């Protein structure tokens, strides 16, 4: 029987008559959502800004096998992300530290970008990308855990969806800005832009007040207000007693419990079919999404003669719709359940992975690429909400644990994807068609475990229940 904690309002101890300025808004789940979303956007911008730039830069340096070399650079980033995730997740959950790791992650990200900008050789570029991955892992693991800490349980899907839209923003801004700045200022231009955005992100993280600290000043941002009428909730003042929160800071840990070891966390997650399926789909998403990245600039150049600037513009047109897919998917996850949302997104994405193979008009490619990304990226926010629910059901497993595992799954996918995509494009006669069809097949297979295992009540269970009711009614 899954462990569920008894909802109890956190103990509130006001430590001083002078709380931090702006305590309520700095600790609120809306501000936390904004900062976490900004962090995700910054991470993806730093990751993707070199996609239209690096092939041309490596070519100007005299390298050959450009698609494969670009794929290895993307691999280096994901390798750093995967290798650093486990210690970050375990330490964050053990000491319940969120804000400090986020700040450290930004400092690492700044240093790695400077190294990439001044790299004298390809090997140093790879080292810089590994460090970028380490900084990014703190954004994903600790940022998502911080958001779940501060958000009422009933709104987690929606808030995660809004924060995950930062993924689309980063991918939308990174490639076109990178291409345009490369054309105008050369190789350093895009990286300087990434440094500026990273510094702005750092300022946002310095303002955050964690929930565990806000509680000490008598403010609980995760206290649910749904039991109160809207007019009462909106007009209640500082003297209004906060209703009970649906989860505590680390709701899945009983009082005085010892933190689980890494092995115990892994064992408990592996025993949960919901967790395993969520990780498999996350890995698949990372693989198919990143498999196109090293090949798209070369494909557009070969078929339609695009330069780096025009490649960037294609990314804008294709990624804009995904700004809406994550918030919408998160919203419908709260309303319909994660099972329906993930199944529909996967199903509706499949035809468009085939349409992008067509080498006709570029307008058709852009539209198909946009719809493909809209539905494929729509699976991520429901999966993060699914993992939050899994965390609350398993005794001793915290948000940082499940998002650490999520980060590893995504990192493995994005490590393998660019290598597979780059090698297929370079060595197969119809490499672009082959990698798109491979992605179609893998996503199609993911529909099966989604149908049986995703959600508090899977689609299979719901269908079986409805059929039983129908049979009973007919009798």
What is the domain total for the residues? 1
Calculate the terminal CA-CA distance, rounded to whole Å: 34 Å
Radius of gyration: 23 Å
| Number of distinct beta strands | 0
CATH superfamily: MFS general substrate transporter like domains
Low-confidence stretches: 1-15, 226-256
- At the first level of CATH, what is the class? Mainly Alpha
Percent of sequence in beta strands: under 5%
The tally of helices reads 21
Architecture (CATH level 2) name: Up-down Bundle
Order of helices and strands: HHHHHHHHHHHHHHHHHHHHH
Structural class by SSE content: mainly alpha
How much helix is in the residues? over 70%
Sheet with the most strands, sense and barrel status: none
In the CATH hierarchy, the third-tier topology is known as Growth Hormone, Chain: A
- Please give the oligomerization state of what you see: single chain
Apparent shape: globular
Any overview of this molecule?
There is one protein chain. With 475 residues, the chain is an all-alpha fold. It has one domain (23-223, 260-474): Up-down Bundle (Growth Hormone, Chain: A). It is 74% helix and 0% strand. It is built from 21 helices and no strands. It has helices at residues 23-27, 29-48, 54-60, 66-95, 99-117, 122-150, 156-185, 188-207, 211-216, 230-235, 262-270, 273-291, 296-304, 308-319, 322-336, 338-355, 362-377, 380-393, 399-427, 431-453, 459-474. Helix 2 (29-48) packs antiparallel against helix 8. The longest helix has 30 residues, at 66-95. Residues 32-458 form the Major facilitator superfamily (MFS) profile domain. GO terms for molecular function: transmembrane transporter activity. Keywords: Membrane, Transmembrane, Transmembrane helix, Transport. The chain crosses the membrane at residues 29-51, 71-92, 99-116, 122-148, 160-181, 187-208, 311-332, 339-358, 364-385, 397-420, 432-454.
């Amino acid at each position: 029987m899954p462990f569920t904690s008894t909802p109890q309002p956190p103990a509130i101890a006001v430590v001083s008559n002078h709380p931090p300025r702006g305590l309520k808004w700095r600790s609120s789940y809306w501000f936390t959502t904004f900062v976490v979303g900004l962090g995700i956007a910054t991470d993806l911008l730093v990751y993707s800004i070199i996609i239209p730039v690096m092939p041309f830069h490596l070519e100007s340096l005299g390298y050959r096998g450009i698609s494969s070399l670009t794929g290895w650079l993307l691999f280096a980033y994901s390798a750093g992300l995967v290798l650093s995730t486990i210690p970050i997740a375990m330490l964050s959950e053990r000491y319940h530290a969120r804000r400090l790791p986020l700040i450290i992650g930004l400092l690492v990200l700044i240093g790695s970008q400077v190294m990439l900008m001044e790299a004298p050789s390809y090997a140093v570029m790879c080292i810089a990308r590994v460090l970028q991955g380490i900084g990014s892992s703190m954004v994903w693991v600790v940022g998502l855990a911080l958001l779940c800490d501060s958000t009422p349980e009933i709104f987690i899907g929606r808030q995660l969806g809004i924060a995950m839209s930062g993924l689309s923003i980063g991918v939308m801004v990174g490639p076109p800005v990178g291409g345009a700045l490369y054309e105008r200022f050369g190789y350093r231009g895009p990286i300087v832009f990434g440094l500026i955005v990273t510094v702005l992100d750092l300022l946002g993280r310095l303002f955050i007040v964690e929930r565990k600290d806000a509680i000490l000043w008598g403010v609980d941002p995760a206290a649910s207000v749904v039991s109160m009428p809207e007019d009462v909730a909106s007009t209640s003042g500082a003297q209004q007693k906060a209703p009970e929160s649906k989860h505590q800071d680390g709701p899945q840990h009983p009082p005085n419990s010892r933190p689980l070891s890494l092995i115990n966390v892994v064992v408990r997650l592996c025993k949960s079919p919901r967790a395993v399926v969520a990780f498999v789909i996350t890995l698949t998403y990372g693989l198919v999404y990143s498999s196109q990245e090293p090949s798209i600039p070369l494909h557009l150049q070969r078929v339609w003669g695009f330069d780096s600037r025009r490649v960037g513009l294609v990314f804008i047109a294709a990624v804009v719709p995904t700004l809406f897919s994550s918030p919408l998917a998160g919203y419908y996850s709260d309303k319909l359940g994660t099972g329906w949302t993930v199944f529909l997104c996967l199903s509706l994405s499949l035809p468009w992975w085939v349409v992008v193979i067509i080498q006709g008009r570029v307008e058709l490619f852009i539209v198909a690429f946009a719809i493909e990304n809209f539905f494929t990226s729509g699976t991520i926010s429901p999966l993060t909400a699914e993992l939050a629910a899994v965390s609350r059901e398993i005794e001793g497993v915290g948000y940082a644990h499940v998002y650490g595992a999520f980060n590893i799954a995504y990192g493995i996918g994005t490590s393998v994807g660019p290598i597979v995509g780059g090698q297929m494009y370079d060595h197969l006669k119809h490499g672009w068609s082959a990698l798109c069809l491979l992605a179609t097949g893998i996503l199609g297979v993911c529909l099966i475990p989604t149908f049986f295992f995703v959600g508090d009540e899977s689609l299979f269970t719901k269908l079986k229940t409805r059929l039983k009711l129908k049979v009973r009614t007919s009798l």
